[in-house]
Amino acid sequence: EFTANEKSIVSGVWAKISVNEIGPQALARVLIVYPWTQRYFGSFGDLSNAAAILGNSKVGNHGKVVLNALDKGVKNMDNVKGTYAALSKLHCVQLNVDPDNFRLLADCLTIVVATKFGSDFTPAIQATWQKFLSAVVIALGSQYF
Ligand code: HEM
Question: Would the pTM of this model clear 0.90, i.e. be above it?
Fold first, then answer.
């Protein structure tokens, strides 16, 4: 459940996020900081070091895909679980992604956003943003059993 104020805070953060810039950075950071996540991206080519990951166009493109999927959540904050039900099933059944990794990506995204926004990303805004991402993480894990 999100209040009207929380919805407007999340929409405000989202409006300032450039998907094409933040998406690649967030996914690259996950792959660098948590190298075991690389195992899911065997078709992406060279991920052997940070420079290779940051320069990898498949990582960049997929980072944009992931962040574009967040747009649906921002626009459906009253039904985050339903919004990500099919994507949860896909990551579980088809991709076999360990759902713990969703939290890691959410945290990396918050770090990238905080770095980019600086002091505009106040503790209150950050708390609401992370509450939203928590809902997305829970929703993405909801079809695992
Ligand atoms: C594919 C979203 C987290 C691994 C996808 C796709 C979307 C998506 C929209 C494309 C689905 C399609 O083709 O229909 C998300 C969101 C995440 C998330 C919103 C969290 C906020 C993760 C994490 C991992 C992961 C943490 C692994 C560590 C994959 C893989 C694919 C995929 C391997 C297929 C990539 C390919 O070969 O093209 N994800 N994802 N995802 N996701 Fe995620």
Answer: yes
pLDDT, tens digit, 9 for 90 and up, residues 94-119: 999 999 999 999 999 999 999 999 99
pLDDT in tens, 63-76: 999 999 999 999 99
- Are 31 and 47 in contact by the 8 Å Cβ rule? The answer is yes
Give CA–CA dist 119/86, Å, rounded: 36
d(CA 49, CA 39): 14
Spatial neighbors of 33 by CB under 8 A, at least 6 apart, are 104, 108
The sign one gets for the Cα dihedral 131, 35, 49, 52 is: negative
Atom of ligand 1 nearest to the CA of 41: 33
How far away, in angstroms, is 51 Cα from ligand 1 center? 22
Q: Provide the residue type at 55 as one letter.
A: G
